[in-house]
Amino acid sequence: MHPPAAPAVRRRDFLRWTGITAVGLGALGLPGCSVLSGGDSASGGRGGSGVLTVATQRSLDNLDPHGPFAATEQIRLFGQQVFDTLVAREGGQLVPAVATSWENPEPTVWRFTLREDVTWHDGSPLTAEDAAYSVRRQAEADSPLSNLWSALSEVTTDGPATLVVRTEQPLGTVLANLSLLRLLPAGKADAPDFFRSPIGSGPFRVTSFVPGDHLELAAHTTYWNGAPAAGGLLLRSIPEVTTRITALESGEVQLTWPLPSDQIARLRQNGDLRLYDSPSYQHWFNWFNCSRAPFTDPRVRQAMWHAIDAESLVANVFPETAAVAQAPITSAVFGFAAQRPYAYDPQRARDLLAEAGLAGGFRTSLIWNRTQAPQIRQVAETFVSSWREIGVEVVPQELEEAQWLERLLALDWDMDLQTNVTATGDADYTLGRLYTSAANRLGYANPELDTVLAGARSSVDQAERERLYGRACQILWEDAVGIWPIEMRMNFATTTDVTGFEPTPHEAPELRTVNRAV
To answer: Could you give the domains of the chain?
Structure first.
């Protein structure tokens, strides 16, 4: 079997998921995970019916795992429970799932052997034709994940248990791409009402769906990888943080995430709760529009970074949930290479502005999406205040999501503050998607970086890919095309009658092994 390869995505998936919206892979037990507060596995005294109630902050309005919202946390969480993938990410490695093995006999050819004991929720067998259909559907969909398959040439079958994927050029991200591809039944998923109550092959099946409110799932007891521990799941949308936490403390819900930093210390003292902490794929950044003066000058961008005290930001705003970043991706992501942090040095910032001919400072603006993260206004205000100290007057512009997206995509902004998630756990998903000249996400073009990222995407040599992404991290960091102040940690909370939960670096954990003590 070939070693795990990594994913490739470029533009459109950034449109539909940003910020605190994380996306999932099913990676369990990432090294470095820890339980922050203890308690025996069944010590809460809350008997359960075998149905686990999960509260999420974002609403689920659509159940198509290949559609326009395919990369959002809520769709990924749903898909993780209801649909299978050919390949899974587990403990940082890409491992067999519905595909038992694979080979790469030619640089542009991949052959996958499928399990023959997988059935859909209606009892019919899952075959290679279903897998081929799913790859084609995702590649052709109006979806943020479609660009994963931009190099796809052909997908065929060789009997009921063999899938053959051909690409136009070598693609080192095929396996990781497949870890995101949810399998759908050929000939059924195109029905107009299919996604009202979709059929999957995963550990749970859909029994009821009220868009924007809740989703009910029942255990698929004949699941090929073992029946789920819980008899069912109830996924509820509770966007207001205080309401979610109150529901958790009362036992109305048994699992929720993410937790605001200012609540964690108090929750840790609650003997009826268990808190989990894990490295994450999520980071914050402040982009500069590198095509718009004065941010065409890297000295100005570097000056803006030297004005930011990232350590104080962590201590004052994210004391329980973040660390100072050392790269344009988090330390949990494959391809991470630590860079030397920009020192907080306002005088150095003023000197750089003077070198750029801006000794008197300048006036600019900052946009952000008001709903992206609970702390985003606080972070924006901190940045604006810090820049004022070096003579840069920044006009804050807090926008509704639709307006923010429209302006972001049109490059109609000076600076943009947001969060982002490397969904696949592989650097290509962020670096190769957002920072190429062709992507033109922030008016930045660098032919050397393009070459580095193209080489990393096409290589199937993981050591070579890691080296190249390290160089990409260095280029972006030194050019200061953005400010990457912090990387987040992922945190979850359960009631103490919940067993079998494992924290993940993203917001779409697998719940097949999770149950409530009865």
So the answer is: 280-489 (3.10.105.10)
